[in-house]
Design goal:
two-stranded antiparallel ribbon, three-stranded mixed β-sheet, about 220 residues, mainly alpha
Length: about 220
């Protein structure tokens, strides 16, 4: 599988997002509270797009082996089961008639430790962390709703430069969709699938899983 093109496009987007974060954090140094060993974002719930999942798994396979890999994979398994249970409960609440806004608000307050969070409160794959992790400390918006880190100094109701995550995810979906076509996968809608980081770490993205026909 040749993932070079998709990964290059993804890394270019990561660089652009990083520039936005650096600009905002420089202009609002008092409000952005990100610092070494701050792990608030490492307990937030979010999912990865297809290209992000493949990228983080590829780097994980490159970086970890032996005992360290086993321990992270074991924790990722436990985390994935916990997330599946949480999502099942959220679905039950939806079926019971609870509003999506209330469910989303409740889910956003849930905390689950990332499998890649080290004992000293630092990310064990910091250089390859997902985009959601990279923008956590600055104001963002998605679906018309603004979001800020609970530890930040940004004042509610005050206008700040805001990163539109809908535009970022549109780019991620575009890269993911093109990748599915490049792989000639029979699962044509795989580019729209979102998965937790924990699932990405424990998934074997082989030809069978990706729906790629192997010819002899």
């Amino acid at each position: 599988m040749d993932l070079t093109n998709a990964f290059s496009r993804y890394e270019a987007l990561v660089d652009q997002v990083g520039q936005v974060f650096n600009k905002v954090s420089s202009e609002f140094a008092e409000e952005v509270k990100c610092k070494p060993a701050c792990d608030d974002c490492c307990h937030a719930l979010f999912d990865l797009t297809f290209v992000e999942a493949l990228y983080i798994k590829s780097k994980f396979d490159d970086v970890f082996a032996g005992k360290a890999r086993f321990e992270i994979t074991e924790y990722a398994n436990k985390t994935d089961r916990a997330l599946a249970k949480m999502k099942k409960e959220a679905y039950k609440r939806h079926e019971a008639g609870e509003s999506d806004a209330a469910i989303i608000e409740a889910v956003s307050k849930m905390r689950v430790r990332c499998p890649l969070l080290g004992e000293e409160g630092t990310c064990q794959m910091y250089d390859y962390r997902p985009i959601a992790c990279r923008v956590y400390g600055i104001p963002t918006s998605a679906g018309g709703q603004g979001h800020t880190c609970g530890l930040s100094g940004f004042d509610e109701g005050k206008a700040y430069p805001t990163l539109n995550m809908d535009l970022v995810y549109n780019r991620l979906y575009a890269i993911s969709g093109d990748l599915v076509r490049e792989l000639n996968s029979k699962y044509t809608k795989m580019g729209r699938v979102l998965v937790p980081l924990s699932m990405a770490l424990i998934t074997d993205y082989n030809e069978e899983y990706l729906g790629i026909e192997v010819t002899s």
